[in-house]
Design a protein that fits this description.
Elements (H helix, E strand, L loop, with lengths): L1 E6 L8 H16 L4 E6 L10 H5 L3 H16 L2 E7 L7 H10 L6 E4 L2 E4 L5 E7 L12 H11 L4 E7 L6 H22 L1
Parallel strand pairs: 1-2, 1-3, 3-6, 6-7
Antiparallel strand pairs: 4-5
């Protein structure tokens, strides 16, 4: 089994989403010692935003990197994503990664009856962190967006481990992170 771990927070060691995604990965590694693991840090090694040359594959270096990203995604059985909320949505570095994996003919296709995802059979666990409280509110564009993207690609096994209210106070942060960490075993039990 292969696990791809993505982090997109710009806060390095102060990142709640990195802390939470690392906890999720550690539980998977403890439960499955033979797990193959790959980590991609989208902050320290960002992908350039999609542009015409990347789409047309006229830059050979960019084309090789885009193919590497695609191969990592396609090979993964489990994908753990650290996705903090920035300005009500995902970090732009995570969006740049999504632009490399959402490719017609590779991860989805259009048919006469509508789009069809081609990347099913994967488990996606998203460590979602927010300074405020947004779950279920109109201000939450993270969970609906990521559910739509991965669903479009054919992935229906999607779980969120969410920590909210982290910017309210140190107590709120500790409580929000504790609640999120407590939800991790439930996610793993469902994924087993």
């Amino acid at each position: 089994m292969k696990l791809l771990h993505l982090d997109s927070s710009i806060l390095c060691q102060n990142s709640a989403s990195r802390e939470l995604s690392a906890s999720i990965v550690a539980r998977w590694q403890d439960a499955r010692p033979s797990l193959q693991y790959l980590h991609r840090d989208l902050d320290s090694n960002p992908l350039p935003h999609l542009d015409g040359t990347a789409l047309a594959k006229t830059d050979p270096v960019a084309a090789v990197e885009s193919e590497r990203v695609m191969e990592e995604f396609l090979a993964a059985d489990v994908i753990v994503i650290g996705a903090p909320m920035y300005n009500f949505s995902v970090p732009s570095t995570l969006k740049a990664w999504i632009d490399r994996i959402a490719v017609a003919g590779r991860t989805f296709r259009y048919t006469e009856s509508g789009p069809q995802g081609l990347a099913g059979g994967k488990k996606v666990i998203i460590a979602s962190t927010r300074g405020g409280i947004h779950s279920g509110a109109p201000s939450d564009f993270v969970e609906p967006y990521l559910r739509q993207v991965f669903g479009f690609l054919g992935i229906t096994d999607i779980e969120f481990v969410t920590a909210e209210g982290l910017a309210y106070s140190p107590e709120h942060r500790a409580e929000g992170m504790a609640k999120a960490r407590a939800a991790i075993p439930v996610v793993l039990a469902e994924a087993a």
